[in-house]
Design a protein that fits this description.
The chain is of the alpha+beta class and about 350 residues long. It has two domains: about 5-225, 3-Layer(aba) Sandwich (Rossmann fold); about 240-345, OB fold (Dihydrolipoamide Acetyltransferase, E2P), CATH 2.40.50. It is built from ten helices and 20 strands. It has helices at about 40-50, 70-75, 90-100, 105-120, 135-150, 165-185, 195-200, 220-225, 230-235, 355-359; strands at about 5-15, 15-25, 30-35, 55-60, 65, 75-80, 155-160, 185-190, 205-210, 210-215, 240-245, 250-255, 260, 270-275, 280, 290-300, 305-310, 315-320, 330-335, 340-345. The strands form four sheets. Strands 6-7-8-3-9-10 form a six-stranded mixed β-sheet, with helices on both faces. Strands 13-12-11-14-20 form a five-stranded antiparallel β-sheet. A five-stranded antiparallel β-sheet has the order 15-19-16-17-18, with no helix packed on it. Helix 3 (about 90-100) crosses helix 4 (about 105-120), helix 3 (about 90-100) runs parallel beside helix 5 and helix 4 (about 105-120) crosses helix 5. The longest helix is centred in the middle third of the chain and has 18 residues, at about 165-185. It is elongated, with a radius of gyration of 24 Å. The chain starts with a strand and ends with a helix. The structure holds adenosine-5'-triphosphate and magnesium ion. Magnesium ion (MG) binds near residues 42, 43 and 158. The site of magnesium ion has 3 residues, from helix 1.
Amino acid sequence: MARIELKGVAKRYGSVEVLRDIDLEIGDGEFIVLVGPSGCGKSTLLRMIAGLEPISGGDFFIDGTRMNDARPRERDIAMVFQSYALYPHMDVARNMGFSMEIRRRPPAERTSRVKQAAETLGLSALTERLPRALSGGQRQRVAMGRAIVRDPRAFLFDEPLSNLDAALRVEMRLEIARLHKRLGATMVYVTHDQVEALTLADRIVVLDGGDIQQIGTPLTLYERPANKFVACFIGSPTMNVVPATGRDRTLSLKNGAQIALPQSAGLERAAELGIRPEHIDLVAPEDADLTGTVDLVEHLGSDTNVYVSIGDVGMLMVRRRGNAPIRSGERIFLRLQRENTHVFASDGSALAHASAEAA
Ligand SMILES: Nc1ncnc2c1ncn2[C@@H]1O[C@H](COP(=O)(O)OP(=O)(O)OP(=O)(O)O)[C@@H](O)[C@H]1O
Ligand SMILES: [Mg+2]
């Protein structure tokens, strides 16, 4: 398996800079998930690692060897694309073993590797079927099987599950987690799906505008986002962010509400307060930071999303567990969990976090 390092890696198309100064060390056997808005360069980064796209600047290493100009075959990295075109006239087994056929590996080795991969992926009963006789999820597994049979040093996945329906996605997500456990392989995985990112990743890399915004474990990104972009990108429903000014250890909101925070550093640079919907409590009037009117209620069964209008502050979304008996038009009293309150400066950077300082 492989350790992958990018040092100051850049990608330019003519004068357009798509990725800038990317520094990333991926440990042997690590599961890295790349997330970011459409067009931020995720696929480009994967393709540069795979050797399908030239690297414009910086250095790229696999297991300590500089590989900027190595061809894909020399890199020995398998990539699974979103559109997993299988050969329609070849059965499952031949599709999976075809890369070995091209490399003229002995048939016995081919057969045994395909058999093993089919077992790993629960495809053993389907090896003689043609792709058209498979479901989407089964085809997706064949595409993964094709990668596994190669026994590569690392796997790259570019939104591999985005063509599948919700139930299949969950099934395949678990499949990929198990596969990672079993193979212990280095994996780099691109997704737009929050749950996939948070559940699969050892570490998540958040990209925006060609730059890495933050690298960290899923919990670090959720609890300690480095800036407003990461704060709002990670977590669903998204974090509430409202204007605020700060003095000493107290934030003032637009309606005059004062929120005292337990941080030691001053809040003079504060420009906005951020709080996730699940970190706002409903309390008695005398304990409230804010009083609002319920604008809209969404009942999701497992959760209830409550949109609360708070005068000059604007709209806050509050998330309650289960089926909360709340009606629109109701007056409601809110308290922000202090240890889960985020503060952003005018440039979007997060100010030192209260509980981080306490720790
Ligand atoms: N051949 C090219 N010439 C010029 N610009 C390109 C070329 N290929 C890609 N780009 C640009 O590079 C940027 C990054 O593209 P990329 O496909 O890596 O985005 P992405 O993060 O994978 O997006 P998505 O989530 O939509 O798949 C985009 O703005 C795209 O327009
Ligand atoms: Mg892409």
